[in-house]
Amino acid sequence: MTNKIKGPSSIKTYREAINDALRQEMRRDPRVIILGEEVSGGAGCEGQDDAYGGVFGVTKGLMPEFGRERVIDTPISESAIIGAAAGAANNGLRPVAELMFFDFIGVCFDQIFNQAAKFRYMFGGKSRTPMVIRGTVGAGWRAGAQHSSMLHPVVTHIPGLKVVMPSNAYDAKGLLIQAIRDDDPVLFLEHKIMYDLKCEVPDEAYAIPFGEAAFPREGTDVTIVAISNMVHRAIQAADELAKEGISCDVIDPRTVSPLDEESILESVEITGRLVIVDEAHERCSLAADISSIVAEKGFSSLRAPIRKVTAPHAPVPFSPVLEDAYVPSVERIIRAVKDVLGA
Amino acid sequence: MTNKIKGPSSIKTYREAINDALRQEMRRDPRVIILGEEVSGGAGCEGQDDAYGGVFGVTKGLMPEFGRERVIDTPISESAIIGAAAGAANNGLRPVAELMFFDFIGVCFDQIFNQAAKFRYMFGGKSRTPMVIRGTVGAGWRAGAQHSSMLHPVVTHIPGLKVVMPSNAYDAKGLLIQAIRDDDPVLFLEHKIMYDLKCEVPDEAYAIPFGEAAFPREGTDVTIVAISNMVHRAIQAADELAKEGISCDVIDPRTVSPLDEESILESVEITGRLVIVDEAHERCSLAADISSIVAEKGFSSLRAPIRKVTAPHAPVPFSPVLEDAYVPSVERIIRAVKDVLGA
Amino acid sequence: MPYDSAFLLRAYRTMKTIRIFEERCIKEFEAGNVPGFVHASNGQESIAVASCIDLSDTDIIGSTHRGHGHSIAKGCDVIGMMKEIMGKATGLCKGKGGSMHIADFDKGMIGANAIVGGGQPLCNGAALASKTLGTKDIAMSFGGDGSANQGTVLESLNFAVVLKLPHVFMFENNGYGEGTGANYALGCDSLADRNRAFGMPSEYVDGTDFFATYEVCKRAIAHARDGKGPFAIEAETVRFDGHFIGDPQLYRGKDEIKLAKKNRDCIKIFRDRVIKEGWLKAEEMDAIDTEVIALIETAVKEGLAAPNPDPETDLMADVYCSY
Amino acid sequence: MPYDSAFLLRAYRTMKTIRIFEERCIKEFEAGNVPGFVHASNGQESIAVASCIDLSDTDIIGSTHRGHGHSIAKGCDVIGMMKEIMGKATGLCKGKGGSMHIADFDKGMIGANAIVGGGQPLCNGAALASKTLGTKDIAMSFGGDGSANQGTVLESLNFAVVLKLPHVFMFENNGYGEGTGANYALGCDSLADRNRAFGMPSEYVDGTDFFATYEVCKRAIAHARDGKGPFAIEAETVRFDGHFIGDPQLYRGKDEIKLAKKNRDCIKIFRDRVIKEGWLKAEEMDAIDTEVIALIETAVKEGLAAPNPDPETDLMADVYCSY
Ligand SMILES: Cc1ncc(C[n+]2csc(CCOP(=O)(O)OP(=O)(O)O)c2C)c(N)n1
Ligand SMILES: Cc1ncc(C[n+]2csc(CCOP(=O)(O)OP(=O)(O)O)c2C)c(N)n1
Ligand SMILES: [Mg+2]
Ligand SMILES: [Mg+2]
Known about the structure:
Chains A, B: It comes from Zhongshania aquimaris. Chain A has 343 residues and is of the alpha/beta class. Chain A is 34% helix and 20% strand.
């Protein structure tokens, strides 16, 4: 995954890249604020301020620089948090709200899908809601059924929302900057298993446009579309398969709404074969969505069934052995690729 | 759509059939209760009791028969309503909760997807949550963006939930009785445009098993899968097309989770062509889901691209001319069928 | 004279505009010219006007499903509103919103809301923007007695206190949430007391008394504008019509509406008071009545004549700012 | 002697079991034997025990992410719990739930809950079942100071009053929601007062005092069981450890924990009191300590030895009752 980097850069973790994006945008634009639970930490306590900087440490150091006025710790009231972000976005701010775990959309979904997402349309194009909701997704932390979901299919279904799922630090920084500058509500979903993942990241601010896929591996036999953390498993699978002479075209859409349909269709035109890897449950999933787009618009290129490699139709189990079996594995991807090749 | 009816029956509306199912199950089983806003109406008022019987009149007459203890009007507190239903279901009742408009899942989604849906799995199979959530879905009432959504893809995505979408009075009664008797949480979605639709309905109680499609039209050229109110448009399209000599196999899955995959795959095996009609938005939709199942498991039968006829990726507009253009029309279905036939 | 006559005439004109607008909506709905669900606010005009009359265009209000009155009181164009309610392309929201989704950002009206309890969290946001940007604007949210039981509203009260937001929570207690009595649905004895327990000043007022309501609002707005945080008001009022137009209202007591219209009509009470006090003359108000009726007549005429949106161009427009 | 010694010994044993269980969880977590997030409740044992000691197996409790103490107090098998927390196939929930999702329906424990504010609506439901079926069982929900600001909890308070549900809302105020002070996040001066404003009896109690807490719970449970509706309790307490195991707790004051352990240790306070009053002898309690330590040792040993679930058969089991 090589990004053409000009100018000074450094090796950064996914966590640091997100922090970097927030800091640079907050410096550039006084309208950018952050709010959520523990985004700083220590409010009303005797000990240290900025005690957490987000429970994953992503927003660490921002409160000391920008103050409690712009890095706002809140009560445990997610509807109020998202509502405050949306209302503030309608009125001149560019808030970045944090849902510590994206699983918590259950207690604030109305403010996301019925309010923020619909304002512009309902109000005849007269409003702008430039807000970002950052949330952590995904399994692997042994956090159990209520803290490990993906849920991107749920929000991707909703018109008016944009959904961004970076798979590496470089994309995370560029896409978050774009998300903050974007005038629509953006869900920025961080897979918690990737926070310590590193890559080279430019020091300066840069925005990656939405709807443009990345191509971590190029190939001609099978197209593999994978998102978020699954990109790494897809790459691993592709590298394994390369040893057996199977050439995979790995596509990372990076944003799932909007989706870079074109790149996927172009790839399938060449390969004729498609495997989609998605950590979400299978029903009405992004995997299903991409499959259906290709089955509709790329049908004539298809030379084999489209395979979905997804999490099963079950909640995320706690027990490590079960959770490991739950998340799509490199082996399952390899098997799916071989299946569509009839190998 | 002829159902083999033995024994006494009568012509009933969709509304009456649902009322009938509720009444018969409440008579049969004292554990069945109803709760929600205005399910009776008139609580704390000087005027008539049972003033509404649900804002669509579906539960009318149940409070007078079963009393306020079993037909419970609530404050406007959907999380409390759904939570109360789930907690009661865990503890010996079989509640039927009403979400006046299913759009209101936004303020109670956690209790549905993180709580009720997951209990059994999280708790190692030790709990049962026999509850039904009835909610009205769909456009056509000029009710605007926040009262006209479908949202079945959102809940179909979630493991642990069952999702039922009857398209006619006969199915509504039989499926609701099954839903009440079922030990899992069931979402029973009533398309508000169908409440006055009539058909012959047996007087006695009967349960229609989940996961078994109905076949309102049989044919050999193209499979049309349609759900809820779209079934009627699909039938109309099929009847129009029949005049031109095009024979459509119309499948109404009736329940979308579980889904009768087999019937769909069998039909496509014969027709080789598939059109899916779904009033939900297109991204991560049920239409996409069904398409992906066929593109994976029925690929070898496919002789043409799979077409989805869905609502667009836009909120439901208020203006009647726009709303009418928003909902998939008979014309669009006909065009899609001809497209897949290359006609 | 504690109020100058320009103020009183403006208050009267605005209340009357709401009344005639709502009455006409009902008529046009019944005539089939207004699609969908419409929730009329006649009977409650005094609260909308008392709340908004001192607000500027940059102060923000967030409204409810029963939002025509708030919109008019905040200065929205009634012709644009009528067109919107009729679903026309030249309506305030291009016909895409309708009665339950009217907004006018130029007037600081950030939206009616068809979700009970949808608006209060958003008004916290508007207030947060004002606080962060230091504009001194305040936000005022409207909600009913029924909405007060929605978790989103309750947590917004606490949230506003914690962040010390310039937000006035106005609760219009008209005794009903649809066909359920406020007596039943509110478990507490007093909504004003319950709101106060969240840690903000909170007052009860007879919302049919324009002047009493105005005075409370003035205090509340000053409190918020001075950076002292949120303020809650419970204003008791009467809903003259059904929950929605067409509601048979079986749940209401015999003669309840008749008596309310006789004794608790906020516009009548206002008129009687200003005449009795000698603040305004009946003729001045009668003249306004004539003008208002003409204005609404024009609104309906223009509404009926206005073009429908065009599905080709409008159905997919404005889902996003950028694609 | 106002309490018989069997009762006192039971209370002591249960509190001590929780304490040792939690301390051991911390150790096993640090040793890598417990996966995931674990929230220990040591310091808060008195509340769990005072709340549950009079409840029967058919009374219901609903718990939180910090639920070990409640589970033990309600009678869940500690060996099954330890296995569950270790993710083992023979755990109370077959290893699928883990620390944040323990439930034991046979003991009337309907679930820890990893969603703050998830449990209170559910306990309303349990209470509704009791009321409808006429069983006289009550429900008791646990929640923290932080959870009190979640809309789902707030609306559940009103809902319980309106439906007159036999539900005791226990709020354990340990001063923190993660690393945020309750002083900050609760906008009100008194949570007990705020809860009372919803229309139910509500009391504040020093939760480190087992006896005071027990007496309030007794009144609250009797109130609920007698069909008089819900009751709220705010019990002030101390969280001895981090929000989760591994939390560096930078937000806590210097010496805060040391002082709390010295002066506000509910078990120490209990011991001192019962010895001072002459109700129990130190040796009796020491003997219990030994037994409890042995029990937890066994739990850990059995936990470590217990088999993992089998992905082949277990991953897809129990998503539904029927397919
Ligand atoms: C979340 C949600 N629940 C229920 C409804 C249906 N509904 C619309 S208005 C209303 C009653 C609101 O009562 P109140 O807040 O007192 O306002 P009023 O109608 O009296 O102005 C209800 C239940 C809704 N729109 N949104
Ligand atoms: C809806 C939701 N929001 C946030 C969280 C993250 N979270 C878990 S525990 C907790 C703090 C809870 O504080 P409190 O209710 O006081 O309980 P305590 O941890 O002190 O026992 C938070 C914010 C969550 N699990 N669920
Ligand atoms: Mg009301
Ligand atoms: Mg706490």
